[in-house]
Design brief:
By secondary structure, the chain is of the alpha/beta class. The chain contains 15 helices and 12 strands.
Length: 372
């Protein structure tokens, strides 16, 4: 298969983790005789620094002409400390989502057997947890009308949704539930918010089209608690933009590190794949950023094009790295000096040698990461 993939490394640890995902994709292309073409664009703070625009036209052109987009991370602490900044890195990411109409964000949350002891939650609570979060991505409060009074003492953000916006993501979530445990939980705040009441109304009207799916409802505050108390009760979670953002980051405690959570942002024509973590600028260029979420995002990219064997091989490589403790410091207490690059090297080597399971630990520590 030939694929034209846009690469948007972004800011902070974004370039480091994206580089490891690229290693995996290039190894897959070689092993399976695919042709992947990569075109890199600027987005976020680095784009502002060079062009004054968090989403330059050159980057837009690259994305519009790509079969898929691999995104890194976005943000910079200098903007975090300046609430008055009118141009911000995050506008680049929001701009891509809106411009390409990437209305559905899919975030898998899986409790890996080899990492159950890394979670602050009890093993009996999280073992076998496997959740798929469907987050509406181009509506709601992030894209609603914003207003600040002339004196700067009053501000508002409008949370607005239409039936159309709700229906199109809901259909995808219902279909996903049909292929899993056939349970869908809508998370909202319908006891307070009119927008949430519309969500409930639309979902209840769609439910008869999916009679094999068990539909449940939770308020966001209760859902946030239940996600920690008993995550295994969930199968597919469907929710609006901000609630989905918060819940999926909260869910990182289940797997032990936010550096393990990948995502896909899907539209009718375009698709983008990215780790859910931020730029983590303080960790940039220190070799401690966990690249697994970016690598798993690359696997989701392959799945999107029905390259399931290729995606499965990446996931098998990730499973092996976790089992052998070839992980960055957020997860690794057994071995010193396993860097971001070494994790990527291991994944790449495993893809090239999937039948070899004996790890040369000396080479890993030397940075050669060879499987023998």
């Amino acid at each position: 298969m030939r694929l034209n993939i846009a690469i948007l490394p972004g800011d902070g640890i974004g370039p480091e983790v994206t580089a490891q995902a690229l290693k995996a994709l290039k190894a897959i292309a070689m092993e399976f005789n695919h042709v992947f073409t990569f075109n890199t664009g600027l987005v976020g703070a680095c784009a502002i620094d060079k062009t004054g625009d968090p989403l330059p036209q050159d980057t837009i052109n690259i994305c519009e002409n790509a079969d898929a987009i691999l995104f890194g991370a976005i943000g910079d602490t200098k903007y975090d400390m300046d609430p008055t900044a009118e141009i911000r890195p995050e506008q680049g990411l929001l701009g891509i989502r809106k411009l390409l109409d990437l209305y559905t964000n899919i975030r898998p949350v899986i409790a890996y057997d080899d990492l159950l002891n890394k979670s602050p939650l009890k093993k009996k609570q999280i073992e076998n947890a496997n959740i798929l979060i469907y987050r509406e991505l181009t509506g709601g409060i992030y894209f609603g009308e914003k207003m600040v009074s002339d004196d700067g003492n009053f501000a508002s953000d409008t949370c607005a949704y239409s039936r159309f916006e709700i229906e199109r993501v809901a259909h995808l979530a219902f279909k996903a539930a049909q292929s899993r445990k056939r349970k869908l939980t809508l998370v909202d705040k319908a006891n307070v918010l009119e927008s949430s009441r519309l969500w409930r109304k639309v979902i209840l009207e769609l439910a008869p089209q999916y009679p094999d799916v068990n539909l449940d409802f939770l308020y966001i505050d209760n859902a946030a608690m239940e996600l920690i108390i008993n995550p295994r009760q969930f199968d597919v979670i469907l929710t609006e933009n901000m609630f989905g953002d918060i819940l999926s980051e909260e869910a990182s405690v289940i797997v032990g590190s936010i550096g393990l959570l990948a995502s896909a942002s899907i539209g009718s024509k375009h698709a983008m794949f990215e780790p859910i973590h931020g730029a983590y600028t303080k960790a940039a260029n220190k070799g401690i950023a966990n690249p697994i979420a970016s690598i798993l995002s690359a696997a989701m990219l392959l799945d999107h094009f029905e390259l399931h064997d290729e995606a499965s091989l990446i996931r098998k490589a990730v499973d092996k790295s976790l089992k052998l403790h070839i992980t960055t410091p957020d997860l690794n207490t057994k071995y010193d000096h396993i860097t971001t690059n070494k994790v990527g090297d291991f994944i790449e080597d495993f893809i090239n040698n999937p039948e070899e399971t004996n790890l040369n630990f000396t080479n890993i520590h030397l940075g050669q990461s060879t499987i023998i």
